[in-house]
Write a structure and sequence with these properties.
mainly alpha, 46% helix
């Protein structure tokens, strides 16, 4: 996706891996394996106010190509 100039992001960071919660509650990596697995495997597709139809179709095409 990056080679095609499509920026993917990660918006979900498990709470137990965030500094505040690690310090306050003593959480550590491995405490919530399902959340960590999701975090390792998820991406957020481009979504913003002026994302036009042509760009949407381009992203869809790239995803289909990758999944084949």
């Amino acid at each position: 996706m990056l080679k095609a100039n499509v920026n993917l992001q990660v918006h979900y960071i498990p709470i137990h891996l965030q500094k505040y919660y690690k310090k306050k509650y003593g959480f550590k990596k491995g405490d919530f394996k399902n959340a960590e697995n999701f975090y390792k495997n998820e991406v957020s597709l481009p979504i913003y106010y002026n994302l036009n139809k042509l760009d949407q179709l381009r992203v869809i095409k790239l995803i289909r190509k990758i999944l084949k």
